[in-house]
Write a structure and sequence with these properties.
The structure holds two protein chains of two kinds.
Chain A: H1 7-17, E1 26-30, H2 34-46, E2 50-54, H3 57-65, E3 72-75, H4 84-93, E4 99-104, H5 109-117, E5 122-125, H6 130-143
Parallel strand pairs in A: 1-2, 1-3, 3-4, 4-5
Chain B: H1 2-20, H2 26-33, H3 42-66, H4 72-88, H5 92-107, H6 110-141
Helix pairs in contact in B: 1-6, 3-4, 3-6, 4-5, 5-6
Classes of the chains: A alpha/beta, B mainly alpha.
Subcellular location (chain B): Cytoplasm, Cytosol; Nucleus
GO molecular function, one term (chain B): protein histidine kinase binding
Keywords (chain B): Cytokinin signaling pathway, Phosphoprotein, Two-component regulatory system
């Protein structure tokens, strides 16, 4: 399990992502599990990414309805009230163009496919690691040119 | 000084045995790597969160296993949540038993679920006890002995 990024990689990431001419990256962690939220929050924080948490898909949608925007959304699939698939569809229907990465423990191809078709830009199996976050972040930097 | 060195050796040995005995996997190391001067108790905080969250799920699953007939969909759902939390702290044995339990749910095998759940509870309690002892010793040894990355 590739968990740790070497210090030079983090430095390069920090320089690239937080260049003085480029605003800091913001993220939203959407997961119903408090342990997972705490870990993902800390992982992002450690990479210098400002982030908030939401406990389910509905909360993620509501926070966007209130006018907030995030460069990156880490979206769990299985959540009560509103799951990640439905939340992703709703966010895209609202015109949210943030990078949305599905982060789930589901491993079946058809489950992943259904989630991707809801509007994800990326998908990773749990547990999330710094290396996986970096690969997602490269998509943000590529999109913004 | 010598007492501290002894504590450090004991702590290192305790930590290693958790991996050698198959209780923890590399996810625990990832948590340790997220610990630093600004977050010196991160691992213990996350583990504490996990045990608070998972104790509730254990009770819920126990109650669900008392019902007849068993609702395998519900049981699977509860165990999915439990497994997610256990995986996040690197609880290797418990994670494996969670997976086995879910396979029995999918097969509609109530006896398999019950037997696996007993094993899971045993290993869950063992790891909890060992981690509590580990963190208690870590507090005695002082902050230098919790795996902190140099900044």
């Amino acid at each position: 399990m590739g968990g740790s990024m070497k210090a030079p990689e983090k430095e390069i990431l920090g320089t690239k992502m937080n260049h003085r001419h480029r605003p800091k990256i913001t993220a939203l962690v959407v997961d119903d599990n408090m342990v997972v939220r705490a870990i993902h929050h800390r992982l992002l924080q450690d990479l210098g990414i400002e982030n908030q948490v939401a406990v389910n898909g509905k909360e993620a949608v509501d926070v966007h309805s209130s006018g907030q925007y995030f460069d990156l959304i880490l979206m769990d699939m299985d959540m009560p009230v509103m799951n990640g698939i439905e939340a992703t569809r709703k966010l895209r229907a609202m015109g949210i163009r943030s990078t949305i990465a599905g982060i789930s423990s589901r491993s079946l191809e058809r489950e992943k496919q259904e989630f991707m078709e809801a509007g994800l830009d990326d998908y990773h199996e749990k547990p999330l690691t710094a290396d996986k976050i970096v690969s997602i972040l490269h998509k943000i930097s590529n999109h913004s040119g | 000084m010598e007492r501290n060195q002894q504590l450090r050796r004991q702590l290192a040995s305790m930590r290693q045995s958790l991996f050698d005995q198959g209780h923890l996997d590399e996810q625990f190391i990832l948590l340790e790597e997220l610990q630093d001067d600004a977050n010196p108790n991160f691992v213990e905080e996350v583990v504490t969160l996990h045990y608070r969250d998972s104790a509730r799920l254990i009770t819920t699953i126990e109650r669900a296993l008392e019902k007849s007939p068993l609702d395998f969909n519900k049981l699977d759902g509860y165990m999915h949540q439990f497994k997610g939390s256990s995986t996040s702290i690197g609880a290797k044995k418990v994670k494996a038993e969670s997976t086995q339990f879910r396979e029995y749910c999918e097969a509609g095998n109530g006896e398999g679920c019950l037997k696996t759940f007993q094993l899971l509870k045993r290993d869950y309690a063992t790891l909890r006890r060992k981690l509590e002892a580990y963190f208690q010793l870590a507090r005695q040894a002082g902050p230098n002995e919790i795996a902190c990355r140099p900044k």
